[in-house]
Amino acid sequence: MRRLLLITLSFAFIAGCAAPQGIIKGRVMSGEKPVAGAAVAAKATDGETFTAISGADGIYSFPPLPSGEFEVSASSAGGEQFVTVWGATHLFLPPGGEEWVWLKLAPREGVIYTPYEPSTPGFGAISGIALFEGEPISGATANIYLDERESLKGPGFRHSFPTGADGRFYIDDIPDGEYFLAVRKREGRSIGPIAAGDLFGVASANPITVKPESDSSITVHLAEKEKTRAPHALDLSRSGTAIRGRVVDAGGAPLAGLYVFAYRSRIIGHQMPDFITEPTGADGEFVLPLGEGGLFYLGARQKLGYSPTPGELFGLYDGAADHGIKVQKGEVLEGVKIIAEEVLP
Amino acid sequence: MLRLLSALLIFTLVGCSSSELKGDLHDMPSELISGDVTWEGRVEVDRIIIVGRRGALRIAPGTKVLFKRVDWDGDGIGDAEITVEGELIAEGTAQEPILLASAEAEPTPGDWKYLHINFAKGASLSNVRVSNAFSGIQVHYSKASIKNCDFRHNIDGVRFSTADLTVEGSISMQNRHGIRFEERGHPALISGNRVTHNEVGIFAVTECGGASIFKGNDFSANDTPVKMGWEQRSDIALGGNWWGAPTGEVKERILDGEMDSTLGKALITPTLEIMPMIPTPFAIPHEDADWKRATDRDIR
After folding, report:
1. Domain harbouring A265, CATH code
2. In A, which residues are within 8 Å of B52 by CB distance?
3. What per-residue confidence (pLDDT) applies to B49?
4. Which of A339, B35, B120, B244 has most Cβ atoms within 10 angstroms of its Cβ?
């Protein structure tokens, strides 16, 4: 009751300030069934958390919220416990905007500890089963991360071999500590962001504790990414923050088929980019949606993954000597040019 | 060719020298070289120097490039640096070597960031002494040649990844890491060098094995001869080098798959039976105050 009062007062305060507001609503599902009574949480970047409860049809709706970034997640304590397969869905709520967020739930799974004989004394292991619609899924890879702030993207600290028909994965010989586990199965690609048709799930027991000479085993439920999934922070129409421009050759002619990438770090190329576009078209134009404002280091190249190879078209943004460019949140920078040339042998 | 004499290259950063600041390096004063520029004499650097893709920096024999300690981002490491995306030609001679070192009265490792060859058209260094940097040189995504050079008192002596690099007849001593690398399938030739008296002789961080060749080097007297990074899974062929001690004794000090089964192994046999004679590449002008300061703590 006190929490409800607090939330109500928060809204009263927001309304009193006439801050731009938006709406987040959506539906909570488990497989093909709606989940009633699920607690949906929207956590703002300042840590303030708003809650809503799903109805009998799984539909939920928050009262008007201040514009900004939110992490939306759901859980259900009715009977079996459920958690969001995706962990948390990040989105940007524009002023006056309305966002529809699908949330998929799966049973909460615990960790089972069994004795383990490591190759390195004192080390432990993480293992488990990857399930999709209740069945073991093959070809999925489990990745562990040291910090949730890595957004559970990229190869992480360690990863497993792809699962076989039994859906089992193993990550052996890791130091004791806490790890965040995510499992994904991509369709037709080995790297890049999760795309429509890919399967993804995070362990509901995250962070998973690894104990010395012990195997931490957990079941991870995967869900298919759908085009209708929650609006993503990288969707320009949602965040309103982006860089637009063209990729050209040294003579100024447009270049097609290049990806434009952005790193938050000045050290380019030693890890996956933070943001990346679709390949440019015949006009060389690109739109690089950014989930947030800040300083980004830009470039363009023909291939994804690994280092540029001889003959590949590659270039860095030359508007600043260090290839950096600043974008304010909600701003769309126009007319940014990136010159790409063949990498020399 | 545009010639810039050293007097023109003494930059001033009001209120920034030797201080610890908290700023983004994007906002740190920088200098873009977009033409063909030659440095000679005594050059003092207190900012980020970037040799752009269409630029070339030539450092004449006998030139002294001295870096002020400017910790712009407050991480404890000096941020003055030279990044090369175009071309670098730093070719001293045995009589007139080039010095890249700290400008501070009491130099320490990390006084300046690095000589950074990154997505560059090419770099050629010979008879160059590099001291008191975070990394003496870092080569990434570039083709570079390092001959008869001397890297000392740095955190990393020579560091590279994804590079087509040759290091020959050079010294990397008294650094934390003599050589630190991520091969990532690219070829490097490390031949006839003296990589000794470092905390770690060779640090294979990740994705190493197969494309880099190490031969005829003196890898003796390093506290840890070879160290594998957490993600280094493949074995590394390091036969044909001198380790200065019986094989069993050297292996005991190597951090590799013998200690942690998840790591690759350093395959150091067959070892060279005779220590390779790797001459000191150039004469050090000890009478010069800048050279004296940079070389005072050298093991001779």
Report:
1. 2.60.40.1120
2. 318, 321
3. 97
4. B120
**Whether ipTM exceeds 0.90:** no
Task: Return the number of other C-beta atoms located less than 10 Å from residue A281's C-beta.
Answer: 11
Which residues of A, range 270-309, sit inside 8 Å of B by Cβ?
A: 270, 295, 306-308
The 10 Å CB-count burial string (b at 16+, else e) for B172-181 is bbbbbbbbbb
- Asked if B141 lies within 8 A of A308 by C-beta distance, the reply is yes
Q: Check A266 against B32: CB less than 8 A apart.
A: no
Compute the nearest-CA separation of A323 from chain B (Å): 9
* Residues A300 and A243 grouped into a single domain: yes
* pLDDT tens-digit readout, A168-221: 999 988 888 899 899 988 765 555 555 556 788 888 888 899 999 999 999 999
* Both structure tokens of A105: 């739930």
Q: How many beta-carbon pairs below 8 A join chains A and B? A: 52
CA distance A179 to chain B (A): 16
Taking an 8 Å cut-off on Cβ atoms, the answer to whether B143 and A295 are in contact is: no
Domain boundaries, chain B: 1-138, 155-281
Judgement on whether residues A196 and A244 belong to the same structural domain of the protein: no
Q: What is the pLDDT of residue A206?
A: 86
Print the domain residue range for A126: 112-224
Q: Does the distance separating the beta carbons of B260 and A308 come in below 8 Å?
A: no
Residues 174-233 of A with CB under 8 A from B: none
Listed in sequence order, the residues at least 6 apart from B88 whose beta carbon sits closer than 8 Å to its beta carbon are B51, B56, B57, B59, B82, B115, B117, B120, B122, B123, B124, B125
Flag if B50 and A322 touch (Cβ within 8 Å): yes
- Phi/psi at A287 (5° precision): -125, 120
Give the CA distances from residue A178 to residues A116, A147, A155, A206, A240, in Å, rounded to whole numbers and listed in that order.
Answer: 17, 9, 17, 8, 36
Write down the residue that tokens 């030693």 correspond to.
Answer: A270
Q: How far apart are CA B197 and CA B298, in angstroms?
A: 10
List C-alpha distances in Å: B45 to A135, B75, B92, B144, B157: 63, 19, 19, 23, 20
Is pTM beyond 0.90? Reply is: no
Bond preceding residue B270 cis, omega within 30 of 0: yes
**CA A280 distance to own-chain centroid:** 23
- Partners of B260 on chain A (C-beta within 8 Å) are 119-120, 173
Q: How far is A304 from chain B (nearest CA, A)?
A: 15
Q: pLDDT tens digits, residue range B103-134? A: 999 999 999 999 999 999 999 999 999 999 99
Q: Mark whether A217 and A292 lie in a shared domain.
A: no
* AA letter at A292: E
- How many angstroms separate the CA atoms of B203 and A126, rounded? 28
A125 plus A153 within the same structural domain:
yes
Is a pLDDT exceeding 50 seen at residue A71?
Answer: yes
Q: Which residues contact A338 (CB under 8 A, 6 or more apart)?
A: A245, A246, A247, A248, A260, A298, A299, A300, A315, A316, A317, A318
**Interface residues from chain B to A (CB-CB < 8 Å):** 24-26, 30-32, 48, 50, 52-53, 83, 85, 118-119, 121, 140-141, 143, 161-162, 184-186, 260-262
Are A144 and A212 in a shared domain? yes
Are B262 and A270 within 8 A, CB to CB? Answer: no
